[in-house]
């Protein structure tokens, strides 16, 4: 089994970097031969905020993360969450607070690391 780690830094809305990263991660997560992990850093921790309401017809990164969480792992930089006033209770079910130590471990274990 091949493993891919996605490290996402950009906010969920305002540009399409997080959206495109999650599109690719979701497509890979649907494959049986892939292990997908997503680590959200900096403004990207907002991708995992629960209760997102977006205009009709607009993409919703919360829903996109849900697809990945059914097959893979999603972790958030705890320091980045704290800096933005986000708590564990603010986040979608399944996404977990994490550390740079865990990111280092995931990076060492991954066959591919993609940074967005």
UniProtKB/TrEMBL annotation:
Gene3D superfamilies with a match to the protein in the record: DsrEFH-like (3.40.1260.10)
Domain of life where this protein originates: Bacteria
SUPFAM superfamilies: DsrEFH-like
Pfam families: DsrE
GO cellular component: cytosol
Protein name: Uncharacterized conserved protein involved in intracellular sulfur reduction
Native organism: Serpentinimonas maccroryi
């Amino acid at each position: 089994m091949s493993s891919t780690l996605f490290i996402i830094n950009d906010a969920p809305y305002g540009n399409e970097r997080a959206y495109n990263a999650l599109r690719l991660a979701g497509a890979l997560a649907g494959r049986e031969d892939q292990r997908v992990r997503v680590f959200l850093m900096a403004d990207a921790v907002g991708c995992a905020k629960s209760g997102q309401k977006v205009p009709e017809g607009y993409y919703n990164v919360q829903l996109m993360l849900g697809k990945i969480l059914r097959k893979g792992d999603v972790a958030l930089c705890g320091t980045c969450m704290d800096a933005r006033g986000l708590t564990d209770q603010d986040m979608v079910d399944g996404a977990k607070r994490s550390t740079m130590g865990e990111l280092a471990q995931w990076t060492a274990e991954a066959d591919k690391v993609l940074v967005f």
